[in-house]
Amino acid sequence: MKIGNIELGEKPLFLAPMEDVTDASFRYVCKAYGADMMYTEFVSSDGLIRDAAKSLAKLRTFDYEKPIGIQIYGHIPEAMVQAARMAEEAGPDIIDINFGCPVHKIATRGAGSGMMRYPEKMLEITEKVVKAVKLPVTVKTRLGWDENSKIIVELAEQLQDAGIQALTIHGRTRSQMYKGEADWTLIGKVKENPRMRIPIIGNGDIKSDTDAAEAFGKYGVDGIMIGRATFGRPWIFKEIRHYLNTGEHLPEPSISEKVELAKRHFAKSLEIKGDRVGVLEMRRHFSCYFKGLENFKETRLRLVTCNNPDEIFGILDYINERWGSNDTI
User: Fold this and answer.
1) Which of 30, 101, 288, 306 is catalytic?
2) Average pLDDT of the chain?
């Protein structure tokens, strides 16, 4: 599969852009476990053009992450064009437009998946961004606004005509948010459309290696994007790739292996963001890495309230000593 001139190999696996999750340290460990393509957290076009520090910080990427995409969102064409140019200057491989985020404060003002109610404006923004930058432009979107307006099959053709070079489709409407099951049938119909020439990437409810194999086999997508299933489980990319290649399931990492991963992740977070922010932003990940350990409540509380990096490394060593000897959850 290729996006523009970017070769991604056969059946590539994508890390979905997720606010407050896919920061540089989390991308670092996902890349180590085999993510073929990753994206930054999504970046507000309004924030970029106002020089908002948080938005500008999200543009930072590293050579070892390549290929890497920067995803932008917004509802004002001129602001999206300016933001795309600023993102391009940061040196990514791809500019991705978010037309899929269902969060209320974003969608209700017409950005993210709110754009599904205004397809003409969506196409206007897409075409202007494509013309404004030299990098390949891709789009991530949903099936439609609600059950009565699933417009993705027609919309996919129109986005292709606007110049995008790949399309990621989340198999839910905006109204569904993340509830119910993702409907891959319409993703499959987009892929089956003989007019479609660009790669189609499927997204939604890929939680295991068998889910991924079914998506490739049954719906014929070119690639798969994985989001929430990566929380505390960046090794899912390795599991899927192994299963696609061999038909065999990899065993769950041991507690000792998870401790070493958590240390590696934490060290990278400290390196990139400094002690204070590096500690605070790891807390959500620590909870996920050790979810399900018996009699873990007290240790978990220490892990997510401690502010001293050395003490946190000590707590991780304790987890290995206390639970790693059994290597069971």
Assistant:
1) 101
2) 91
